[in-house]
Design goal:
The complex is a heterodimer of chains A (about 270) and B (about 290). Chain A has about 270 residues and is mainly α. Chain A contains 14 helices and 1 strand; from the N terminus they run βαααααααααααααα. Chain B has about 290 residues and is an all-alpha fold. Classes of the chains: A mainly alpha (about 270), B mainly alpha (about 290).
């Protein structure tokens, strides 16, 4: 069944065996328990749990805020990647290094920092309040928190691809009389789109599941600013394990379908 | 088109529009200042609002120290385990061809697409009082959930892919020639690994470990589900920040948070350093 690339390198059985056992014990069997637990519910009960208005409101909120955060990152992430690859300017190295701060910083720290910044008395929050805009404790605040924690994804996927595009291709297009927008549309866009979609999908998936950075800024009002992961926590605190499990399964299934759709879209773009 | 306009076109394509260039750089600086720098400065300014004294009181308080110890314990167990797993997984994926390989790679990445809260939940379902093994565990007087083992398990789950993810592309690129040469010269499996493979993957390994440590240290959602929030016993540093914050003890919360921020900045420095070594290694390989 298995074929080694090279017959002289030892360790196939050992490494594959260890990898499979480790993954099974720590990831697959525990995740299996999640699906096993949902069989405590009948199909009708399961539908009843996940179609409760509070669950549907949280579902809509989690997926829409994650979508908009990924979209914002699609714009500012591409801008950052472009500037970091194409230009040399003072502070470029510092910005490049600091892009990964959201991955290194514990999400709870990000959560309280952003809340302090965007709360009505905070630095940006008070400015926004002057023009009648409320950021913290609204879906806008949740979107901004998700934008922060997922900021590196688009930058780090687009950056290497952009660096690999030979400048000669763009120059050739320009020599042949293409306007800058035509160069962007016909040269850069097709090359960057698959990487951009990967970054978008990673940011989106992370945003849907994100908990630590959101709960401080969300305000956590049921039906209004309550995200799905928080609803799972609420059910757990009420010892409603089957309810928590049903929501967890719903979340995994919806995320899986969306990621699959993005994957298919990516394949269609790569093979025209 | 004359050759003069051709050159002009090529030059303008190379340099770009100077105005657009300035605007884009200014935009990048604005995004950086607004989204990255400002939150960082807020943590520091809130932490030192009432002076250095209250800052040190907050981070030297016994509950904070025990939270720090628990965080370091979780990191010290989770990171080495995932390091060995990462090397082993990358080895079998990159050195051999077998059916189901792409499925295996997908499974390795799986924890990244599972919400941390679900990562905590699954261990509660297995080992909690009403869980599948709950009765057996309580008969044998073993506690996993709401105790340190649960925190360690949840931390391992969310950090499983980091090392493997960095090593797989690196080892695939390096191929198997050097290992084969070592074998033909008479090295046994372990000698080959220690003297040929490990030096080749060293920087990628360090890079993966740094990322893994960052996440293990800062994990919040998964740990929050299994911790039980017992002060001085099952609180990690991020959970300690949450408790202080919810008690409206904002200065203390931000003081502990700035401790975590300092650790995050150290991690960024280490990351930058290992990344630079890695890219130097790659460009050397390209020249050969």
């Amino acid at each position: 069944m298995s074929r080694r690339i090279s017959p002289v390198i030892p360790g196939f059985g050992l490494t594959l065996g260890y990898t499979l056992v480790y993954l099974s014990l720590l990831v697959l069997i525990p995740l299996g328990a999640l699906f096993l637990k949902t069989t405590d519910l009948t199909w009708a009960q399961f539908i009843q749990v996940i179609s409760a208005p509070r669950v549907l409101a949280a579902l809509k909120l989690s997926f829409s805020t994650a979508f908009f955060a990924a979209l914002i990152n699609g714009v500012i992430g591409t801008l950052l990647a472009w500037v970091l690859v194409r230009y040399t300017f003072p502070g470029r190295k510092i910005i490049d290094a600091m892009i990964d701060l959201p991955f290194a910083l514990p999400t709870a720290v990000a959560g309280i920092a952003l809340t302090a910044l965007y709360a009505p008395k905070g630095l940006i929050g008070s400015l926004a309040a002057d023009i009648g805009l409320k950021i913290a404790y609204t879906p806008l605040g949740i979107t901004l928190a998700l934008t922060f924690v997922t900021l590196p994804f688009v930058v780090r996927t687009v950056q290497p691809v952009l660096a690999d595009i030979p400048r000669e291709v763009e120059e050739a297009a320009a020599c042949l009389g293409a306007k800058p927008l035509q160069v962007a549309r016909h040269v850069l866009l097709p090359a960057l789109l698959p990487a951009w979609l990967t970054g978008f999908a990673l940011a989106f998936a992370r945003g849907v599941g994100e908990y630590g950075s959101v709960i401080f800024i969300a305000g956590n009002m049921p039906m209004k600013t309550e995200i799905l992961p928080l609803l799972i926590m609420v059910k757990l605190d009420q010892y409603d394990y089957t309810g928590a499990t049903a929501i967890g399964v719903l979340m995994l299934v919806v995320s899986f379908i969306l990621l699959l759709a993005i994957n298919l879209l990516q394949r269609r773009i790569e093979t025209p | 088109m004359t050759s003069a306009t051709l050159t002009a076109n090529a030059n303008s394509a190379r340099r770009g529009n100077p105005l657009a260039r300035r605007l884009l750089i200014a935009g990048a600086w604005l995004v950086f200042a607004l989204f990255l720098l400002l939150p960082l400065l807020v943590v520091l300014s809130e932490a030192f609002k009432q002076g250095v004294g209250t800052f040190f009181t907050a981070i030297l308080e016994p509950d904070a120290i025990s939270a720090l110890k628990l965080t370091l314990t979780a990191v010290a167990i989770a990171v080495p385990l995932n390091l060995v797993f990462g090397v082993s997984a990358a080895w079998c994926v990159s050195k051999y061809e077998f059916t189901g390989k792409s499925l295996l790679v997908t499974l390795i990445d799986l924890p990244f697409s599972v919400s941390p809260v679900i990562a905590g939940l699954i261990y509660v379902l297995l080992f909690g009082a009403q869980g599948y093994f709950g009765q057996w565990l309580s008969d044998h007087d073993i506690q996993i959930v709401f105790a340190i083992p649960g925190i360690v398990l949840a931390t391992i789950f969310v950090t499983v892919p980091f090392v493997a993810r960095e090593l797989i592309p690196l080892m695939q690129e390096q191929g198997t020639q050097e290992e084969e040469a070592a074998r033909l010269l008479g090295a046994n499996g372990w000698q080959m690994f220690w003297h040929v493979t490990l030096p080749n993957i060293k920087w990628g390994l360090i890079y993966g470990v740094v990322l893994c440590t960052a996440r293990a240290m800062g994990e919040f959602g998964a740990v929050s589900v299994v911790s039980g929030h017992i002060r001085g016993l099952t609180n990690t540093l991020p959970l300690h920040v949450e408790i202080l914050y919810n008690e409206y003890n904002h200065v203390a919360a931000f003081s502990v948070a700035s401790l975590l921020l300092a650790l995050a900045l150290i991690i960024l420095l280490l990351k930058q350093w290992s990344e630079a070594r890695l890219s130097r290694l790659k460009s050397n390989a390209d020249e050969e």
